[in-house]
Amino acid sequence: MLCLSFTLLLALLLGVSFGDALPRDAMKKRCSLSKYQFLAPPELKAVQKMKEQFEGIMLLSDRKCHSRLFHRKWNPVELSVSERVMLVEAELDLATTMLQLPADAPFANTRQRPLAFLTQAREDLRGCMAPETPSDQPSRKLRHWLQRLQTAKETETTGCLEASAILHIFQVLNDLRCAALREQCT
């Protein structure tokens, strides 16, 4: 009986010690992107409406770009799962930043739902990204694209970046879906 009590006490102490050794936030935070595998029709409809309204606005303005950020000679399925997450996080960061820019009232209202959705997706992705270690270098393809994105942010006009992000929003959503699937997708 004493041996059984001692064993239970030892197990309890080890359990408490082990629980304190792990960060509580790490135990709570789970990576779940499954809700992005198939996007809800209301979200897709809101994004489509925003894109169409923006295309109408674009006809009235001059938003020429020198870089073609979303024209890649490779497909995100060629990247590892962790690299797809990094790619989509960068794309979502650009898209949400551009959607937060001041705009006329009708467009500002139209983009609120897509902005909220994309912001939530970006936060969910950030919860899935492993902390970088010095040995974790993205592939040459991804590294080159991330460098092009950074250069575009420094050299292109805000109008160009906004147009690129919004006009290619469905490409970003497809990349998000591929990252959520965590396997090959088309």
TrEMBL record:
Report the Gene3D superfamilies cross-referenced here.
Interferon lambda (1.20.1250.60)
GO BP terms in the entry: cell surface receptor signaling pathway via JAK-STAT; defense response to virus; innate immune response; positive regulation of immune response
Residues of the signal peptide: 1-21
Tell me what this protein is called. IFNL3 protein
What keywords does the record list, in alphabetical order? Antiviral defense, Cytokine, Secreted, Signal
Give the top-rank taxon of the lineage listed in the UniProt record for this protein: Eukaryota
Known InterPro entries for this protein?
Answer: IFN-lambda_sf (IPR038326), INF_lambda (IPR029177)
Q: Which GO terms describe its cellular component?
A: extracellular space
Which family is it part of?
Belongs to the lambda interferon family.
> What molecular functions are annotated in GO for this chain?
cytokine activity
Check the record and name the PANTHER family matching this protein. INTERFERON LAMBDA-2-RELATED (PTHR31943:SF1), INTERLEUKIN-28 AND 29 (PTHR31943)
Q: Does the keyword Secreted apply?
A: yes
Q: Where in the cell is it found?
A: Secreted
Alphabetical list of Pfam families matching this protein:
IL28A
Keyword Transcription regulation present in the record's keywords: the answer is no
